[in-house]
Inverse folding.
C-alpha cells in the first residue's frame, strides 16, 4: 500500500523530492517504490519533465483506481482504530493562501486539543483545483469563494474584504470605496490565486476586452487548447528532425532505430491533438521528448569522442552537447520573450508552463515548438560541420561544462547567421528570415487570443 500512497503523493506534489519529504522517506526510496509499482502493473505511470512530474497515458487512466484504493485503505484504518477505542485518522483539506495563513491555524489548534489522534493534510491551490480535488476524493472538503457556481453544498464561514492596492499618488487612492467599473481602464498585476475572485470575475464580465491573456491562462481548458497546439508542433518538428537525418545520412545511421523513434512520436499525435488535461499533455510531451532524445546521439555524426549525448542535463550542463543545447535554449527563450512583449503579450503568463516568480512562462511555451527545428538543428550543424570544437568548451571545478569566450563568440556569430537564413513560413506561405519566426508565432498567438483566428497555428517545419 505504501507504493500506492507514494505514487499519489508524487503526483500531488509534482516532485519526487517534495513527496519524499512529506512521507519521511529518502528520494531514492520513493523512486524505488514507484519503479516497483510500475513493474508490478507492467506500465509506466510517471515521467519526469522540465516542469516536474507528469502522468503517462496509462498513469492518467489508472489514477482514479489507485486513489480509490488508498482512500479505502485509509477508511479501513480509521474504522479499525474506532473498534479499538482509538481516535485516529487524517483530514485532508483543500485550501488557498489566505485561509491557510489566517483562518486554519487557530481552528486546527482548537480541534487538535480535543482530538489529538487526528492529523491534517493541507492541499493548497486555486478555487477550481480545490473543487476538482473534492470531486475526485483527493480532499475531504475544501474552501472556496461563495460567489462561485459550484455543485457542492457550501457553508459560509467568513466574509472577506476586497482591497485594491494602488501606486502612491494614484487618483483613486483618495477614495474610501472604489467601484469595480472604476478599475476597468487600469493595468493589473493578477496573482495566480487572485484571478478566480468574484471581484475580478465581475470586472472581466463587464469589460471582456481586459486582460484576455490572463483570463485564458486562468481557464485550464482554454490553456490546454493552446498548449496542445504548441506541443503538437514540438512533436511534429522533432519527428521531422529525425526524418531529415534518416533521409540525408541513411548510410551512416541506424535507420531502423530512427524509424522506431519516429513511430513512437507519430503515435502521440492523436493523443495530443485531442488532449483536454494539462497534466496528461505534459506526460505525452515527456514521452515524445524521451523518444526524440533517445536517438539524439545518433544524429551527431562528427567528433563522437568529444560530442556525445546520453541524456539531457541542465543547471548545470554536464557535457559538451548539453552545454551547447542550454546556451541555444537560453538565446531562443530571450528572442521569444522579446517577441511576445512586442505584440502586447505578457511573457511571464504561460499556458503550459504555469506562473513562477521571475520565469518567462509564455516564452517557454513558445520555445517548445521551436526547440527541435531551430535550436537543436542549429547545435547539430555546429557539431557536424565542425564549427565548434572540444577546445571551445571548458569543464569547471563543479563539473559544469561551459563555452569559453572564444567558443561563445563562434556560437553567437553562427547564431546570427542562422537567423538571417530564409524559410517559407508554413502557415503564412511567405518567405521570412528564421530570426523572425518567434515574432510571427507571437503575432499569431496574439491574434488568436483576440479572436482574429479560430485556433493558434503552431510552426510546423519539414
Amino acid at each position: 500500500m505504501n507504493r500506492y500512497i507514494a505514487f499519489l503523493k508524487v503526483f500531488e506534489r509534482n516532485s519526487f523530492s517534495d513527496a519524499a519529504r512529506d512521507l519521511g522517506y529518502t528520494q531514492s526510496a520513493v523512486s524505488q517504490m514507484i519503479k516497483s509499482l510500475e513493474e508490478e502493473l507492467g506500465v509506466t505511470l510517471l515521467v519526469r519533465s522540465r516542469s516536474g512530474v507528469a502522468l503517462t497515458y496509462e498513469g492518467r487512466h489508472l489514477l482514479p483506481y489507485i486513489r480509490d484504493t488508498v482512500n479505502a485503505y485509509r477508511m479501513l484504518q480509521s474504522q479499525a482504530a474506532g473498534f479499538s477505542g482509538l481516535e485516529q485518522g487524517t483530514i485532508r483539506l483543500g485550501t488557498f493562501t489566505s485561509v491557510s495563513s489566517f483562518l486554519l491555524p487557530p481552528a486546527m489548534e482548537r480541534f487538535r486539543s480535543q482530538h489529538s489522534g487526528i492529523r491534517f493534510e493541507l492541499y493548497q491551490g486555486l478555487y477550481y483545483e480545490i473543487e476538482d480535488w473534492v470531486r475526485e476524493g483527493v480532499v475531504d472538503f475544501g474552501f472556496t469563494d461563495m460567489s462561485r457556481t459550484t455543485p457542492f453544498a457550501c457553508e459560509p464561514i467568513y466574509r472577506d474584504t476586497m482591497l485594491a492596492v494602488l501606486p502612491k499618488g494614484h487618483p483613486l487612492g483618495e477614495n474610501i470605496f472604489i467601484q469595480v467599473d472604476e478599475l476597468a481602464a487600469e493595468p493589473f498585476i493578477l496573482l495566480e490565486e487572485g484571478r478566480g475572485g468574484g471581484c475580478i470575475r465581475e470586472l472581466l464580465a463587464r469589460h471582456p476586452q481586459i486582460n484576455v491573456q490572463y483570463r485564458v491562462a486562468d481557464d485550464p481548458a482554454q490553456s490546454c487548447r493552446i498548449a496542445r497546439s504548441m506541443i503538437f508542433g514540438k512533436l511534429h518538428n522533432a519527428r521531422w528532425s529525425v526524418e531529415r537525418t534518416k533521409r540525408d545520412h541513411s548510410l551512416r545511421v541506424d535507420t531502423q532505430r530512427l524509424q522506431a523513434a519516429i513511430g513512437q512520436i507519430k503515435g502521440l499525435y492523436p493523443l495530443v491533438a485531442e488532449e483536454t488535461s494539462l497534466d496528461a499533455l505534459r506526460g505525452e510531451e515527456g514521452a515524445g521528448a524521451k523518444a526524440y532524445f533517445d536517438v539524439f546521439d545518433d544524429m551527431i555524426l562528427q567528433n563522437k569522442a568529444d560530442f556525445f549525448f546520453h541524456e539531457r542535463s541542465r543547471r548545470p550542463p554536464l557535457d559538451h552537447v548539453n552545454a551547447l543545447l542550454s546556451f541555444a535554449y537560453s538565446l531562443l527563450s530571450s528572442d521569444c520573450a522579446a517577441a511576445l512583449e512586442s505584440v502586447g503579450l505578457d511573457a511571464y503568463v504561460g499556458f503550459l508552463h504555469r506562473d513562477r516568480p521571475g520565469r518567462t512562462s509564455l516564452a517557454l511555451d513558445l520555445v517548445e515548438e521551436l526547440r527541435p527545428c531551430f535550436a537543436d538543428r542549429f547545435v547539430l550543424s555546429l557539431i557536424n560541420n565542425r564549427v565548434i570544437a572540444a577546445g571551445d568548451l571548458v569543464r569547471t571545478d563543479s563539473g559544469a561544462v561551459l563555452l569559453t569566450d572564444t567558443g561563445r563568440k563562434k556560437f553567437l556569430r553562427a547564431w546570427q547567421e542562422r537567423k538571417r537564413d530564409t524559410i517559407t513560413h508554413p502557415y503564412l506561405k511567405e518567405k521570412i528570415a528564421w530570426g523572425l519566426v518567434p515574432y510571427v508565432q507571437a503575432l499569431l498567438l496574439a491574434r488568436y487570443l483576440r479572436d482574429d483566428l479560430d485556433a493558434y497555428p503552431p510552426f510546423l517545419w519539414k
In short: The longest helix spans residues 220-248.
